[in-house]
């Protein structure tokens, strides 16, 4: 799997290529993550806002799929590059105001490359409207709840393992916020750890001892039991530090790599990035409910191992000097794992979108310890599961945290792919979800007036072929 210095070149090539406007703005956001850091909750929310706005802008012009929040009236031809750029700029300026001058300059460069036509102006207007629509829809989503977290005092209760770095846990109220697509958190929330609803019984169990002893062996900083490949896996997927693209950025970068291999169009990329980022946002929401909503806000491995004399389990032994491979434990409870849920989202969305799990691709990483390393995968689930188990090798999660969260990510991904941003009924001209005589009237009027909307097969010419294809789909009705 290891390919040495090629990794840096791979990341640079993807990051600097002007392949398409969606990827370009995704890179602008990834660079923002590197510059601003922070925890996964707001990062995934910002990614969903950004890419839903881009998607609704592009889809309002093409109208091939269901909108996420709603269609924007276009009123004529509109330039997609202008629409994407205006939408992305508006979201990023709102979410990261300190970097507004950077976004202003990038937007100016893009718009300067587009001829000054009515289509350009319409594209800008569509993009701004799509962004404002997204911001308004999420303006009161509950993500600003700052209720202080109350720490427990019993064995197994979560405590901040690195108080010299963190004073408060990250996102203790995030699970209360509004989902993006899933109906509710409860429908996707995983079972209690190892099925135990009582923390004391969990800590006394054989299963818990196995979990602790595994990470104690494999996740210790200088473990003689962890293989070189496991160490590489641990660091490759880490990206925990500020200055990296963090786990959500790693997933988005991975989408860039695969979408380039697939040769996706701008509308296809807009949809794929929206699906990924909405799924990431909802999966993190469910993961944080498992961390904080239940009566088991579980301590991290470093605490469990150092204070194993308190767990009332004869199968575990304390090691007060034990430290994980990673120099800190993230500031939130162990069960379940955010990285692992994102790995499940990656696998689930990509399998659905591409139509198969089998696909070969090579990824790099931002993690500075292995920044010269790439890893090659032959399936989406292979990378997703490796992302998940990496947290055990890094010493910051138990296996149960990872396996449950990966399953959660896959479930969320499947739900979102099947329920959001789906292909429209082909002959549904007015977007109301029904194919009827009104759609026939609209198409016929556009056809005889020579409007672009009547170019049904998108070959740039309005001809009898368009009428034939429309009538075929009209007779089929709305099939999803």
Residues in helix, % = 40-55%
Number of strands: 2
| pLDDT < 50 stretches | 1-18
| Tally of distinct domains | 3
Task: Give the end-to-end Cα distance, rounded to a whole number of Å.
Answer: 40 Å
Order of helices and strands: HHHHHHHHHHHHHEEHHHH
* Main sheet overview: 2 strands, antiparallel
What Rg is obtained from the alpha carbons, in whole angstroms?
24 Å
Total helical elements: 17
CATH architecture of the largest domain: Orthogonal Bundle
Using the coordinates shown, work out and report the CATH topology of the largest domain.
Vanadium-containing Chloroperoxidase, domain 2
Query: Which strand order do you get reading across the main beta sheet?
Result: 1-2
What structural class do the secondary elements suggest? mainly alpha
- The residue-averaged pLDDT reads 94
Percent range for β-strand residues: under 5%
CATH class of the largest domain: Mainly Alpha
Shape: elongated
């Amino acid at each position: 799997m290891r390919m040495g210095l090629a990794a840096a070149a791979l990341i640079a090539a993807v990051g600097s290529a002007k392949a398409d406007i969606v990827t370009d703005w995704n890179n602008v956001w990834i660079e923002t993550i590197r510059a601003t850091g922070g925890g996964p909750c707001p990062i995934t929310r910002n990614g969903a806002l950004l890419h839903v706005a881009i998607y609704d802008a592009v889809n309002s012009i093409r109208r091939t799929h269901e909108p996420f929040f709603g269609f924007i009236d276009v009123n004529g031809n509109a330039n997609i590059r202008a629409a994407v750029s205006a939408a992305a700029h508006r979201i990023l300026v709102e979410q990261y105001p300190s970097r507004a001058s950077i976004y202003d300059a990038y937007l100016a460069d893009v718009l300067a490359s587009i001829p000054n036509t009515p289509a350009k102006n319409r594209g800008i207007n569509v993009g701004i409207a799509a962004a404002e629509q997204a911001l308004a829809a999420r303006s009161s989503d509950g993500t600003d709840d700052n209720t202080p977290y109350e720490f427990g005092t019993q064995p197994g209760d979560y405590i901040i393992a690195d108080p010299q770095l963190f004073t408060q846990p990250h996102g203790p109220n995030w699970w209360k916020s509004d989902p993006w697509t899933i109906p509710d958190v409860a429908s996707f929330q995983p079972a209690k750890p190892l099925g135990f609803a009582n923390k004391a019984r969990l800590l006394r169990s054989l299963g818990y001892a196995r979990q602790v002893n595994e990470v104690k062996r494999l996740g210790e900083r200088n473990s003689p039991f962890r293989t070189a490949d496991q160490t590489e896996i641990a660091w490759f997927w880490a990206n925990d530090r500020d200055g990296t693209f963090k786990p959500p950025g790693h997933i988005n970068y991975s989408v860039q790599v695969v979408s380039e291999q697939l040769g996706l169009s701008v509308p296809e990329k807009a949809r794929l990035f929206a699906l990924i980022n909405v799924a990431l946002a909802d999966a993190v929401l469910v993961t944080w409910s498992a961390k904080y909503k239940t009566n088991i806000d579980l301590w991290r491995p470093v605490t469990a191992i150092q204070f194993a004399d308190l767990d009332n389990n004869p199968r575990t032994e304390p090691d007060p000097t034990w430290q994980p491979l990673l120099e800190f434990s993230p500031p939130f409870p162990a069960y379940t794992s955010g990285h692992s849920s994102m790995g499940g989202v990656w696998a689930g969305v990509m399998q659905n979108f591409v139509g198969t799990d089998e696909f070969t691709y090579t990824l790099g990483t931002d993690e500075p310890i292995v920044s010269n390393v790439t890893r090659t995968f032959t399936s989406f689930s292979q990378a997703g599961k490796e992302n998940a188990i990496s947290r055990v090798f890094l010493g910051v999660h138990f296996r149960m945290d990872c396996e449950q969260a990966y399953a959660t990510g896959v479930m969320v991904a499947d739900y979102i792919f099947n329920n959001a941003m789906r292909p429209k009924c082909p002959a549904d001209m007015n977007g109301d979800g029904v194919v009827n005589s009104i759609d026939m009237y609209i198409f016929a009027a556009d056809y005889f007036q020579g409007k672009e909307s009547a170019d049904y097969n998108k070959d740039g010419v309005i001809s009898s072929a368009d009428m034939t294809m429309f009538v075929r789909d009209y007779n089929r009705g709305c099939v999803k």
